[in-house]
Design brief:
Order of helices and strands: HEHEHEHEHEHEHHE
CATH topology: Rossmann fold
Number of strands: 7
Strand order of the largest sheet: 3-2-1-4-5-6-7
Length: 277
């Protein structure tokens, strides 16, 4: 992990012990960075993956190394959990598996997301259903499961936290990636509804990054150019997003709202998604 990330996470929250977070999609990209940031802050991290088993194990190993001073003796392979979040049965079984192996769960970070292109011309029920299941339904099911788990714990004051990763484009809409955008819009609404329905046992907070990581659709030069398109002259960095997740986890007064972490990109009008600009 970079020195900048270490400094950022350390400044956001003091080290904590005996808290466990399930991070979905933690094998690669932003989910991996969130998992490492939580581990650096003292969290035990349950690393969820679907197909990226080797990368998930590598993430778990790095998380364990960051918690080297921890008394936990669990091997890294016991910190990885496979589930296809498009499968409701597999999703419902996920958090109980983590609890059975790790003892308890204090937070769920809903990071995993399906991101496949469609628009109003290519839209289909199948595309909408696939995005809804992975991006919206799974997050709601995991919030349900965490709520039930917190109720069943013996501590009267136990409280869990759900952090939903959203997208600045919900506040700056364009019609690209239609099914993805609709699924994230539903998740943003669910963040409010879950916060209302599952209090006081659960807090539910959204974190909406701007353009943070490049992809195969953008060259390094194009990514660098697009990253500067914001009122602050830069969009979100990985460190910014990790710090915001930690802030949401540690601030006990925040629920039912979303932190926009995008350098102000949501204040600008983009006619196309970054991937197609």
């Amino acid at each position: 992990m970079s020195a900048a990330l270490s400094a950022s996470t350390a400044a956001t929250a003091p080290p904590v012990t005996q808290r466990t977070a399930l991070v979905t999609g933690a094998a690669v990209r932003l989910g991996r960075e969130i998992a490492l940031g939580l581990a650096h802050a003292g969290w035990q991290v349950a690393v969820h993956y679907n197909n990226s088993a080797a990368q998930a194990l590598a993430t778990a190993q790095e998380c364990a190394a960051l918690r080297a001073s921890s008394s936990s003796s669990l091997a890294s392979e016991h910190l990885i959990f496979q589930a296809d979040l498009a499968d409701e049965s597999a999703t419902r079984a996920l958090l109980p598996k983590v609890v059975a192996r790790l003892g308890k769960v204090d937070a769920v970070i809903n990071n995993a997301a399906l991101f496949e292109h469609d628009d109003v011309r290519s839209f289909s029920y199948a595309s909408m259903a696939a995005h809804w299941a992975s991006n919206t339904g799974a997050a709601i099911v995991l919030a349900q499961a965490l709520h039930q788990h917190v109720i069943q714990r013996s501590q009267a004051d136990a409280q869990g936290v759900v952090v939903n990763l959203l997208d600045q484009k919900l506040w700056n809409p364009n019609p690209d990636f239609l099914s993805y955008t609709l699924s994230k819009a539903a998740l943003e609404a669910a963040t409010t509804l879950l916060a209302q329905a599952l209090a006081p046992q659960l807090r539910v907070v959204g974190v909406a990054p701007g353009l943070t990581l490049t992809s195969h659709l953008l060259s390094p030069e194009k990514f660098k150019q697009l990253h500067t398109l914001s009122p602050l002259g830069r969009s979100s960095s990985v460190q910014d997003v990790v710090s915001s997740v930690l802030f949401a986890l540690n601030n006990h007064s925040i629920t039912g709202t979303t932190l926009l972490v995008d350098g102000g990109q949501h204040l600008m009008k983009f006619d196309r998604d970054f991937s197609w600009m």
